[in-house]
Amino acid sequence: METTVYPREPQVLKELRDATEKTNFGSSPMAADPHASQLMSMLLRMVNPKRTIEIGVYTGYSLLTTALSTPPDAKITAIDPEHASYEIGLPFIIKAGIEQKIDFIQSQALPVLDDLLLLQKEEGSFDFAFVDADKQNYGNYHERLMKLVKIGGVIVYDNTLWGGTVAKPDGEVPGCKREGKVLAAEFNRRIAADNRVEICLLPLGDGITICRRIS
Ligand SMILES: C[S@@+](CC[C@H](N)C(=O)[O-])C[C@H]1O[C@@H](n2cnc3c(N)ncnc32)[C@H](O)[C@@H]1O
Q: Domains in the chain, please, with CATH?
């Protein structure tokens, strides 16, 4: 981290991370890991998406990463029911001059995804998606994103190792981590068996799974 990640972290992202850590919102390590963010930035530059979806914004570390790594005319649909945490990061998004790329929707994600699919007929309209929200719904998000993201597009899921607990016997997992372990392990098995995607689970940050839609 000291050699490869922090020295290359854009200054405005570092400022957003510091501001997050200084607030009450920073009491739990919710923001995307800077190492995972470095990977996402590279992926985004390779995919060069015009439209992306982010589920789970918090103070906006991954959202600002996305906005900094996409073309000037890219549009990001960012969904989170909490606005107060987003307001912590907003000054840095404005400072970076990329707020015009972002459509922040204050809502639970599922109704927004259903609306995009059923009412707005946005099937196949997105090139990239990042999911970092309620783990109970990862399977539901996956089914909707498999329609919203076009064939060849990329979906990235965060926290798929859940602190490494997915690889540990239950007895070695603290009680507060057990539900997350079960949810992450179930989701990992589900997408491993999904032949509509290529996948790769990378052991950086809290575990990050990259899916490329192939059918
Ligand atoms: C781990 S944090 C996201 C961190 C963020 N990606 C970052 O880099 O800072 C999880 C976020 O998911 C949001 N969330 C929880 N349930 C949600 C839901 N049903 N739909 C959308 N977002 C949700 C929470 O409000 C929280 O801000």
A: 6-213 (3.40.50.150)
